[in-house]
Amino acid sequence: MSGTTSYHAGVAAEDCVARHYAKSGHAIAARRWRGKGGEIDVIAQAGGETVFVEVKRSDTHAAAALRVSDRQIRRLFDCAGEYMGTLPDGLLSAVRFDVALVDAQGRIEILENTLAA
């Protein structure tokens, strides 16, 4: 996949994941939120909990899961901490970290609370 095609496929996957969370009752607080250390793909909120979502797209869910690197996890945690500073309870806010896997057919698998800080 070329760089441009890959970029657009990633954006489309993020769109699908954001719709998935919205349909399940979450408010989408941010998309592609940029902090000092990087970007969070989707930030959703429901029931007083903020969910930070890393979206990965590949031919299969298993291949997408393999694309989550330690570096990306550290970046996600750093950015989440920065975002949490904007929330009323700051770093004491209720949060979780999900990974959303999107396959070539657009099927979504959510791994809830799969990353531990």
TrEMBL record:
<dbReference type="InterPro" id="IPR011335">
    <property type="entry name" value="Restrct_endonuc-II-like"/>
</dbReference>
<dbReference type="InterPro" id="IPR011856">
    <property type="entry name" value="tRNA_endonuc-like_dom_sf"/>
</dbReference>
<comment type="similarity">
    <text>Belongs to the UPF0102 family.</text>
</comment>
<protein>
    <submittedName>
        <fullName>YraN family protein</fullName>
    </submittedName>
</protein>
<dbReference type="InterPro" id="IPR003509">
    <property type="entry name" value="UPF0102_YraN-like"/>
</dbReference>
<dbReference type="Pfam" id="PF02021">
    <property type="entry name" value="UPF0102"/>
</dbReference>
